[in-house]
Amino acid sequence: MEGDLAARIAAVAAVAARHADTVDADARFPAEAFAELKAQKLMAVLLPHVFGGEGRSVADAAQICYALGKVCSSTSMIYAMHSANVACVVNHRDDSEHFLACLRRIGVNQMLLASSTTEGQNGANVRASAASLVHTGDIVSLDRDASVLSYGADADAIVTTARRSPESLPSDQVLALFFHDDYSLQRTSKWDVMGMRGTCSEGFRLMAKGRREQVLSEPYDRIHRRSMVPVTHLLWAACWAGVAAGAVTRAQSFVRMVARAQKGALPPGAPCATQASLSLSTLVRLVDSALANYLARASDGKALEELGFQTELNLRKVSASELAITTVMHAFNACGIAAYRNDGDFSVSRSLRDILSSAIMINNSRILANVSTSCLIGGVPDSLSRLQ
Ligand SMILES: Cc1cc2nc3c(=O)[nH]c(=O)nc-3n(C[C@H](O)[C@H](O)[C@H](O)COP(=O)(O)OP(=O)(O)OC[C@H]3O[C@@H](n4cnc5c(N)ncnc54)[C@H](O)[C@@H]3O)c2cc1C
After folding, report:
1. CA of 116, closest atom in ligand 1
2. Distance of CA 200 from the midpoint of ligand 1 (Å)
3. Do residues 79 and 124 both lie within one domain?
4. Residue 288 has pLDDT above 60, yes or no
């Protein structure tokens, strides 16, 4: 990573760290960190220069998620969700003047995009929508039960799935982009949860109206496989790796502190700190290799849609989540009561509460059930080299 980007990320991480405790305690949007992300012009790194961005790769966005995850999980997760939606709208953009102007508006104003896929009681069945777009001349409207919508109240725009038309099947979906002045939100549920409290993932009735050109013409099915799933899973995994790294740092500091106080004698939890380091390095390697695999295919839609790649992406989401939880648990065991406390320098309480969300952000069980057939078809690797 070049120095300039590293310095800008460090500036945001410092602000995020300063406000992390109140974001968690008050379950509030990390406004200060996002003001700094905007000031550092990091909101649109995935957009090409022509739209006010920097034309950077998903690997750079992942570095940002990792760095922020170490200090404030919610800030990192919000940035990950936002960036995945930026990737969707720019990778699958229409070339209408209106849509290109929308992308410039996002980049120049460093806008924050929220994502609405969860609807009603449908859980993470992302590939089916109940609410449909209604076309009236050049205007489209949508009335949707957005039952989990992170930072909905603080977003500048919402990217939402929808049934193509009232006559369409639930799986015949499109992706639409609505700006703040296109929609109104009526709160339907609060976000009183154990972790990721700063994502403010409340429920809303979303009522939107925009121009026909704000609906991407590419079917959502393709956007889902080529951008939504890969970029979301990679950036979520980078965020979780960051959260795990933050916990490991605390475990290592704890062991050092005790060793100093006890003239070199290690605390009983020291081996757990070693296990935490070990599983963190496995997790980081997993994220790195998944990113490399994605980047090698990024400009080839067919390669992105290959069944083997899609299966691997899904399985890596599950592995990243499990490894991150395991890593944080090792860090917790390394610090003992100091980790169990909600206060103090070695508390792992927030990391543990936050990282458990990884198992249900698209439920791991749902993912495993969905890919079970393709896993059977794929068999096992012929040789070790195929594991690279
Ligand atoms: C921190 C965080 C942030 C999130 N942010 C967003 C976001 O910004 N946008 C977004 O769209 N989603 C968001 N989600 C939601 C996420 O994408 C998944 O939809 C959700 O986590 C899946 O939860 P689950 O495991 O309970 O669902 P699943 O296991 O996928 O589904 C639960 C199933 O249980 C059944 N069920 C559950 N409750 C009821 C009920 N009351 N009545 C009848 N049936 C029921 C339904 O059949 C449903 O299919 C977020 C989730 C988390 C944890």
Report:
1. 11
2. 14
3. no
4. yes
Does one domain contain both 209 and 231? no
Domains contained in the chain, number: 3
Q: 2 alpha carbon to ligand 1 midpoint, in Å? A: 38
Whether the predicted pLDDT of 124 surpasses 90: no
Q: Inform me whether the pLDDT recorded for 387 exceeds 70.
A: no
Q: What is the rounded average pLDDT of the residues 129-149?
A: 97
**For the whole model, what pTM was predicted?**
0.96
Confirm or reject: Cβ of 135 under 6 Å from ligand 1. Answer: no
- Compute, in angstroms, the gap from residue 67 CA to the centroid of ligand 1: 27
* Angstrom distance (rounded) from CA 131 to CA 162: 6
Ligand 1 centroid to residue 124 C-alpha, Å: 5
User: Is residue 356 within 8 Å of 197, Cβ to Cβ?
Assistant: no
Half-sphere exposure of 357 (CA within 13 A, CB side): 21
Q: Does the C-beta of 122 come closer than 6 Å to ligand 1?
A: yes
Residue nearest to atom 44 of ligand 1 (CA): 121
Among 165, 192, 214, the domain boundary falls at 214
Q: Which two tokens stand for residue 188?
A: 């339907």
Q: What spacing in Å lies between the alpha carbon of 362 and ligand 1's midpoint?
A: 7
Do 97 and 71 belong together in one domain?
A: yes
Q: Is the CB of 199 under 6 A from ligand 1?
A: yes
Other Cβ atoms less than 10 A from the Cβ of 194: the count is 10
> 90-102 pLDDT, tens per residue?
999 999 999 999 9
Q: Is 136 in the pocket of ligand 1 (CB under 6 A)?
A: no
Domain range spanning residue 287? 220-387
Integer CA distances (angstroms), 155 to 45, 62, 75, in order: 17, 21, 13
Q: Does ligand 1 have an atom closer than 6 angstroms to the CB of 201?
A: yes
Cα 192 to averaged position of ligand 1 atoms, centre (Å): 15
d(CA 370, CA 262): 52
Mean pLDDT of the chain: 95
* Domain end call among 183, 214, 245: 214
CA-to-CA distance for 294 and 290, rounded, in angstroms? 6
